User: Fold these one by one.
Assistant:
Number 1:
Amino acid sequence: MKKIVVMPLLRMPSGHHQVAEALINMFEKQNKNVEIKKMDIMSYTSDVLEKIVTSMYLKWIRYTPGTYEQVYKRFINSHSDQSGLLKLYKKLFIKKMVLLLQEENPDLIICTHGFPSFLLNQLKLKSKLDIPVINVYTDFFVNDMWGKNGIDVHLVPNQEIRWELIHEFGVPERNIHVTGIPVHEEFLFTTKDQIRSSRKRILISGGNSGLGKISSLLEEFKKSKRFDYLVLCGNNQKLFNQISSWKLSHIKPIQYLTSRSEMNLLYEQVDAIITKPGGVTISEVIQKKLPIFIHSALPGQEEVNLTFLTNRGLVFEIDHEQPIEIQLLKKIANQKQLSICHKQMESYHKEFEVNEQGILVLIESLLDGKTYKHNSSLISHEYRIKQKGLSI
């Protein structure tokens, strides 16, 4: 039986895990003869270390976002794969990655985070690894942590990344496929057959970890007469209790949702969403063709995502100096604006060259060591696992 290892990072809920689970679900429904295992190199190294890193990361971006932004720009998205931070990561974790591969002996590795991709890329470039590796990107850009030249296949979210990988990093065009950011199949279902309310409903999301500046946003909506608001509080119990104490019929708090079908139904019940520019959430909402309003962006990757999304006309950025409900009305009640928004979303989807079935065919081809063809591009791989080659 063939084996695939899918590698996000850390255990906290994140877009990296959501994409990993979408791919696992996609493959398990089609191929019962393949073992798929999700693994985190940080937890494999040390459960205690993983918990410490997760706690530090969440506190860092919550309480001192400015310093996180500086570190991200200088070391992670600095247009250099030789930064001191990456060299330190390599020294600390590459031996653990080798041990993981020796123990698991996979036939294929899929990375949904740049850190494992970086480590595997180093092994590839030194001819220490002959297992095919796929990068599946979860943001609308590529930071410098992702491995590039040693990676066998890149599933990218847009044409801009394709161009960047080819012209700035020398990645062969045949190894790159524009797929968008994969979303779980649950969000492909449409159930809009319920009676629509006369009042527009707005979904407000601050992220599964309760991060995001939505408390101040809600203060403006407490006296609203125009919209009903559904607020995803994630794990932020304080926010949930605060909204519940208001006892307002037009603002409803919702705790952490684990069911994708419930989340999909929620998307189907609303007329727009106010959220942050996380790659997976935005991709889900674009799939549902909902107008997207950005209330804030976490430092680092979300800020870069926001630049891409606004440049492409896929989202509306909220101006906090102006009444927010007026901004919502001007967009939601304006059919011309909505039409432009939908056309931009359709244009974005037309960039995709490989659909879900194509991704499955590609993965199966790599597992079988066969040739995969798409749009006149050719990927030919004859792989063999170096049983004794996983060393440093």
Number 2:
Amino acid sequence: MKEEKKTRLDTNKDMMSEEKLAKLQKISLFAITWPILIEVSLQTLMQFVDVFMLSFVSDEAVAAIGVVNQLLIIAFVLFNFAAMGCGVVVAQFVGARKPKDVSATISSAMVMNLLFGIVISAIIVFFKEPLLGIFDLSPALMVHADIYLVIVGGTLFIQAMVFTIFSVLQAQGNTKDVMYVSIGMNILNIIGNYLFIFGAFGVPQLGVMGVAISTAICRLLAMFVLFYLLYLRVEVKIRLRDFFTFQKAYVKKILKIGIPGAGEHLSHSASQLVITMFITVLGTVALSTRVYTLNYAWVITTFSMAMSKGMQIYIGQLVGAGLMDYAYKRMYRGLKISLLVALTGAVILAIFGEFFLGLFTNDPDIITIGAILLMIGVLIEPGRTTNMVVISALRSAGDARYPVIVGIISMWGISVTLAYYLGIHLGFGLIGVWIALMADEWIRAILMLFRWRSRKWQNMRLVEDERSTKMETTA
């Protein structure tokens, strides 16, 4: 009798696993990822367009905005922890088919991020002088940086909402919605930049201030559209009173993923901030070269970023459905594709580096040094791509602490230390800094791969499948 019950239970579990697998296979990794690829490409394009159009103002304007963006990136990380954690939890609840839990998670994350975003915006505006003062910028650069920081930094709470809704829509599989909104943001951003930088159609020619205003307006309009889309897409509607109620169980799950995930990103951003401070010692040419080169580096990593986001959604849903072996294999497939694309892009940039940099500037020093950095990028990209994809997969499975611990040790012990030693102490400049970045990326990538192969993440699932529990109880 006991054997019959056990056989029936195993059969029921197998049937349920096959049912889950069949449903999740219909939503392939490619189907999730291609709209994200376009969305990430468009986000990268926004940065690219801003830098390109600002280059018509001056190299000093580009250098100033590059410095400010290092501060803003840290702010993004601080309020992105809720968006990231919410995305992972929502993906697992979607995989486990729990729509009520999905809505409760979303409402908790949105309130948390709005409040946090407002606080961060206020801190940036009121403490802008000491924040910019750490870079010891020249008066010419400080004028541009101050204006941009006040306008864009003061409206960061809007970006907090945009990030959160982007994350939850994608976690539910609605990646096309995010793609369409990103397309609209880019079109408006290009139009706004053109009007304010060149003073077209009688619009005041505001330069850096105009770019900042254009960015803020685009984000505000995107936020309103995203709120509407979210209302349409959630299966269980979120009520107004839900936004005034914190449910500890959901907040705890969000923070379990969000805080370590944010810690890793914060460590990376802070380490890059310190490295930027090193580079300021090298002068405006070095700062401008860094900004131009990193913009092309972001173009290369666009596909890897999209794959990592898609991986987070896909692996999260698979883990939520209890399909661990399938999740394990699919990560490797996505990683192989990402590496192939990233290496191809890096090689193309390395070969035609001087031509691409010449699109931004005529300064021979910037072009020469930047071309060398793009060559080093061929060696950096495999490590960077592996980190992006594998860390996203680990995080989506609930294993968020290991990447941040390894990241803090490597970023500060290797990246920052070597950047100073090679770039400043030994006098290799930006080339030394880039070698330090390469060492950091590769060491972390190797450790992340070992972690995935250990399968320890399989015991860190955030949700339980109620139907499995019921079936076991009934049996």
Number 3:
Amino acid sequence: MRNLLIAAAFALTPVVAAHAEEQKNPISVHVLSTEDGKPAAGVEVVLEKRDGSGWTEIAKAVTEKSGRISSLFPTDQTFQKGDYRVDFKTGDYYRKIGHDTFFPEITIPFTIEDTAQHYHIPLLLSPYGYTTYRGS
């Protein structure tokens, strides 16, 4: 029984570490394919902040094997209230895997009111549809 508990603890270590990393950085994303039920690795994601009447890019990253970007907000900047958006470059992703898609990019705007919170933006993706929500 003791060995089983130790094995279970080691199995959860990467999940706990990934969650702790997400909590240090205020913005994370996760892309999952609803077509095959697997993470979407290799999706470029651009984070922008509203700057007057336009948008300013503040970060860019690519989803890992797990479909995640745990630390999207730049560590050298102060997280501020305001309007942000993430732009998922889904057309490039689908071209790389040899698949057609109707949505060449998916842009999700959101508002930050409380900079003490963590904001997680999941994207459930298929070639002809998508769903998102505020994750935890």
